[in-house]
Design a protein that fits this description.
Elements lengths: L4 H21 L3 H13 L3 H11 L1 H14 L5 H24 L2 H31 L2
Length: 134
Amino acid sequence: MPLDPATLLTLLAIGLFAGVASGFVGVGGGLILVPAMMVFLGLGQHAAQGTSLAMMLPPVGILAVMQYHKAGEVHWAFAAVLCLTFVVGAWGGSKLSLRLSEGWVKLVFGLVMLYASVRMLFKAWAQIQPTLFP
């Protein structure tokens, strides 16, 4: 998939949002980056996971990224753009989080987790339902 201007803008937005969320409530990689790349860039689950791990490669997932890379499921240019914007977003999100009370941060975190889990449950049900009731 090419890194055209529209894709670059999408990656910048995803990386910044995920960085803010990470700095604000401690989530970002699997909860935001993977679904966002699937929805907004059309990546498959494995490619989104591999690209997300590649962005965090040095400190976290070098062995996992090697497996995804061998399978051709890492978009390195995407990972680089996401990494840069994630860092900026995490800095801004952490500043915002520290200005708010712990209660507000917990509320935002809980809402993000609730949204992500409900969305995932509905999508999973839609995928397995045909196999349960043929």
